[in-house]
UniProtKB/TrEMBL annotation:
It is found in: Cytoplasm. PANTHER family: PREPHENATE DEHYDRATASE P PROTEIN (PTHR21022), PREPHENATE DEHYDRATASE-RELATED (PTHR21022:SF19). Residues 1-89 form the Chorismate mutase domain. SMART domains: CM_2 (SM00830). It comes from the Bacteria. GO terms for cellular component: cytoplasm. Residues 89-264 form the Prephenate dehydratase domain. Pathway: Metabolic intermediate biosynthesis; prephenate biosynthesis; prephenate from chorismate: step 1/1; Amino-acid biosynthesis; L-phenylalanine biosynthesis; phenylpyruvate from prephenate: step 1/1. InterPro entries: ACT-like_dom_sf, ACT_dom, Chor_mutase/pphenate_deHydtase, Chorismate_II_sf, CM_dom_sf, CM_II_prokaryot, G/b/e-P-prot_chorismate_mutase, Preph_deHydtase. One of its GO terms (biological process) is chorismate metabolic process. Its EC number is 4.2.1.51, 5.4.99.5. This is Bifunctional chorismate mutase/prephenate dehydratase. GO terms for molecular function: chorismate mutase activity; prephenate dehydratase activity. It comes from Caenimonas sedimenti. The gene is pheA.
Amino acid sequence: MTKTLAELRAAIDAVDRELLAALNHRAALANEVGDLKRAEGTPVFRPEREAAVINGLQNANPGPLKENNVANIWREIMSACRALEAPQRVAFLGPAGTFSEQAAVQFFGSSIERVPCISIDEVFRATAAGTAQFGVVPVENSTEGVVARSLDLFLNTPLHIVGETSLLVRHNLLRQANSLKDIEAVLAHPQALAQCQGWLNAHLPDVERRAVSSNAEGARLASTNPAWAGIASDRAATEFGLHIAAHAIQDDAFNRTRFAVVCLPQTLNAPEASGKDCVSLIVSVPNRPGAVHDILVPLKKHGVSMTRFESRPARSGQWEYYFYIDLQGHPSQPQVTAALEDLRGLCAFYKVLGTYPLGE
Ligand SMILES: C=C(O[C@@H]1C=C(C(=O)O)C=C[C@H]1O)C(=O)O
């Protein structure tokens, strides 16, 4: 016999009470872990452990919940448990409502102390100075390529990468009126203006495009002037009380941005192997024929795959470059260590930016 609505809801209420008891039990255990860590002086946040918890549960998941539901639910549970051990302060390019904030919450869950910063430089500075324990910075966009400022700052920073996450970035045109009429300027971060240039050329060809420090700042400014529009997320529309005058105006429907999570090595040392890991490094090679080819030889020899290869000018005026390389694997695997050692021997400059579990 099928159950009535009232019976089903009563059953759900009973399950929720069981969940509540189980979650509080879990939180109490995490609190005990916190006491142990405090006594040992070891870090609260252990991304490889969190990745392993999520992987384990996804593998054990009988459904009907989907794998990504399981990941999202447990990320929030672990965020709340971690906050009981000690709330983590996380810096990102602000103000509230930016994609960087969204990336921070996607990675750490929402139980964090938010430290919005006025620029990417400031995220690095605040994290290096200890104002925040972690920083979240954009590194690459699927339409526009690298975020040059972040890559350049990696070169000299004492911070290292301990995690990554990527977001589907949907840009909307936001303004006070729900129309495209009488717009004098569109204000957004240069990356967003670039990612929407096809739409802007087609729909607002004669309107001034003004670069501002973040999309959320553009949205904030649009809320102060009816002739201005911003390009930002749905959340920024809610945050600043604006209409979405045009939805999803980015030129690439699958526009994604990848973010790196950074911290001082004393906050968190290189995460242990999670099973799906990545090593990021910057190298430069002497400017001679075949030098770039030589970098690839150790990787081929030791069977290590490279998932990223970017170049940035070394600013020496000599047409020299730094190469940003991502390798798959973890230094606990002998072939990865062997490839890194061979590579180091070839390079004029060699810096490991971090070893971390692969993100979404
Ligand atoms: C509880 C721990 O601390 C944190 C919280 C975790 C959790 O809630 O499962 C996992 C890893 C840590 O980030 C732990 O290290 O086991």
